[in-house]
Amino acid sequence: MRLAPEDERKRRSDLDGTELGRFRPYLLMLARMQVDDMLQAKLDASDVVQQTLLEAHGAIDQFRGKSGAEMAAWLRQILARNLADEFRKFRRDKRNVQWEASLQAALDESTVRLERWLAIEQSSPSDRAIANEQLLHLADAIVRLPQDQRRAVELHHLQSHTAAAIAAKLGKTEIAVAGLLRRGLKRLRELMREQD
Length: 196
Description:
0% strand; single chain; 196 residues
């Protein structure tokens, strides 16, 4: 069902920078998970997210979705394209559509893991709206964790790394990683309660 032209204009005006800005922590978390350790010193994920939000704001008339989940999927596509462009600059490669598709798949998989972590049951539109809000709150809370805790939580819970793999990646012991995970999850619960 198509909206009347004035209803469509109102819906588009409701999708201003404030609405798009709600997705910033979510996009930042996804972008950080895709930037490997070697590129982190050269590429600021927050710059890529800012570019993504600017492009989305400029192209809002192309967004055809109606829900927050559809908005998140549309923003993930823009983010994947922008990350691929940045990676290409550092790797001096030509455009690789297959590589961009795998990056999009990785971003989508990260979202699926977030949803599983929240144990989302999506049986009705209102349940999906609530789940989308929870997803954005969780992403915001993860982004607000101290850096070591955030990395440990992302690597373990969102990328399924073992404690040993995380220890090697972070240059810490497995016991230190276990402490980071424990403190990170405790702080994450506190942050989620503050948002309720």
